[in-house]
Amino acid sequence: MEKLSYTDSHDPITFLTNGLKLMKQYYVTGMSCAACSARVEKAVSGIPGVTSVSVNLLTNAMAVRGDVSPETVIRAVEDAGYGASLKDPSGTGDGFGSKTGSSNGKTTGTEPLNGRKPPEVSETRQLVRRLVSSSLLTLVLMYFSMGHCMWGWPVPVFLRNNIMGQGLLQLLLSSLILLINRRFFISGFKALRHLAPNMDTLVSLGSMTSYLWSIFMLFRMSLLISTGANADAAASMDLLYFESASMILTLITVGKTLESYSKGKTTDALKGLMELSPQTARLVRDGAEVTVPVEEVKIGDVFALRPGDSIPVDGVILEGSSAIDESALTGESIPADKGPGDKVFTATLNRSGYLRARAEKVGQDTTLAGIIRLVSDASATKAPIGKIADKVSGIFVPVVISIALITFLVWLLTGAPLYYALERGISVLVISCPCALGLATPVAIMVGSGKGARSGILFKTAAAQEETGRIQIVALDKTGTITEGSPAVTDILCARDIPAQALVSTAMALEQHSEHPLARAIMTYGAERQISYPEVENFRAITGSGLSAILNGITLTGGSLRFIRSLFPVDAELEQAAEDLSDRGKTPLLFAAEGKVLGLIAVADPIKAESPEAIRQLKAMGIRVIMLTGDNEKTAGAIGVQAGVDEVVSDVLPGEKEAVICLLKQQGKVAMVGDGINDAPALTAADMGIAIGAGTDIAIDAAQVVLMKSRLTDVPAAIRLSRRTLKIIRENLFWAFFYNVIGIPLAAGCFIPLFGWELAPMFGAAAMSLSSFCVVSNALRLNVVKVTDPGRDRPGKNALKTLDMTSIRARIAPEPVPVAPGSLRVKATFRIEGMMCPHCEDRVKKALEALPFIEEALPSYEKGCAVCTLAGTVDEAMLQSAITEAGYEYISRG
Length: 894
Description:
The structure is a single chain. The protein is about 50% helix and about 20% strand. By secondary structure, it is an alpha+beta fold. The strands form 9 sheets. Strands 16-28-27-26-17-24-25 form a 7-stranded mixed beta sheet, with helices on both faces. A 6-stranded antiparallel beta sheet has the order 18-23-22-21-20-19, with helices on both faces. A 4-stranded antiparallel beta sheet has the order 2-3-1-4, sandwiched between helices.
């Protein structure tokens, strides 16, 4: 498999979003509960050309896909009784930038919103002001209505025996409280006028009914006093519900304030990302450094970075070297050493040296902007688990109003006084809470997405975040995922009396002129240990065998065991060691001087240090782990044993990975983890595609989850986070349903005959105000989840006990496969010499598949051949030329 390095490809996040069909996001105003979001969603989904719409009550955001103009969407929202505005072009969801349309339908066009406070900040401040004012007036009202009337607290002299004066004072205070909280009435009755009642409708109906009833009773009191029935008028004071009308609004405002504050906490991760970007950049102009706003930086500008500077835009280093702290983007705490030619990214930190870099991506094209866009888009989508809550929310308020009316009538028919029947109906209205239902899923998704982003795990959609936790099988690509993706020296065995440094120096002298991947691995090993080597003469690459050169008149030779053994005697112990290393998937290279074998150096694509631990964690979760690779069975088996996977599927052609995934899906939910171009079809076919962040752009684009740190242990971390998010969502949904199932019958008085339990309207309002707060607070617990801690891992209830690999291995057997009626894809075997390792196989594979008459090639260095699927007549001369140019020798066909 061809492995592209991170510096050879574009940054993963930008390309991750480039392949997606971009959605338009809107900021929606006027929503107060799940019934509102359901109403908006229904209105917009009915627009011709809209393919999908998702409304998020938590962030007041709406994501719309389809060929439809923003003006049409905004008009549909306004016709439904709400306001909408197009979010800024970055799609970050902050409400800044530019705004199309208006929230009141009076203007359209583009209006600047620079400097405006984020919506949740402005809303919280308004709620706090309303809460303070309402609370102060409510305390005064409660003092007179309950403190004096029930407990005899002192009042001014002019009110002591003036029941009408006390009633008018309660009316005045209550009216002020209703005026301060008029938003409930405006929103509630507006929604009722559009035949789409919401939570505000319930609150406003309950409060207004209490208020109007109290005015009626106050008027009745004045009539009684005018007729001299002062005792009856005094008794009627107990039937005033001004304090209930006011307390309902005040307590709901308490809940709304707590909810708004908690909702702001859920978006802290997104806001934190937005605040990472530096405000200024130090540009190099005419040899001098000039500090300018970051908005003025253009592609191609050269900018300077001093130690401690935050990098303003994405770029490539031109001069200098330094340690770059990329923890803000990847969560990786260890700084990365970078020099000329390496890429740097926005919001990362220059720790040590002085650098000059050229800007390559600015503004909304930077990696940071891509992450913000991705997290925002994920939060704007809906998880499938939340659909049941959406369905209930759509009919919840009309059902509650109906229950309240039935409650009122039933109590009247049973002979209860009018005021008591009203009290029961009002209690039903104010205790019911559609908000908790609407927030149960999106608040957990938002917090989970933010937690994942801080940990270097990016979920593209809410559905991806949900489904990741249900994975039963994980299929891992080998090269670049389980292994490092590039060869490295793993073992050095010396003949007697030969120092290791002398062996490495001789090998470096011989390999210095070779371009083979194995040669580069040896040169890198020596350079890292500062081992010097001499210059050689008469260097010669012996096709299909090895290398030779002259050093001070001494002939040096290097190559495979077969090649060296054909020239010189090899010590039996060294020969056995070479064969053992080969059995373990490594490539032993022997080196000799004047016919004496000096020792061997084994080279392999090493397993990443964290791979065995990551696989162990996955297995501890009850997940079956499979390794897919194009390597031969012997090499693949050796690596599979080292990694600790459950099953190994070897000799897999790139096109067959997708077929393997489809067969695995018949047995359970499958996640495919990969990083190469060849992995893209399998990533798309899997239930969940997980891309390594340092992989190729196509793989990242095909996946639904991206691991920014390119660390395999982040796969179980992503599953762990998803499982905890699912647990929180289930808890929230249970609480939301349980609360309403218990609360509504309690408020209606169903438990009075059994236990004598009844609920006053003000206590119902208190319960309602706290329900949403509890749901949001529960979701915030995700912020303290340790996603990398495997201590609490347990197999899921859906864990697979067995896995049938028979049909999968049969599927990849090398047999002709029909591709069209009456035709077969013909396979042919070509003998090729000179391949010594899997990287040789990769080079031969690439050379063969570039030929027009070869569709797929499967080389094997151990068998010395390549099995090819033909797409036409073989041109022997072209075939031989391609193999020779790749550095190998074509022998024959068959």
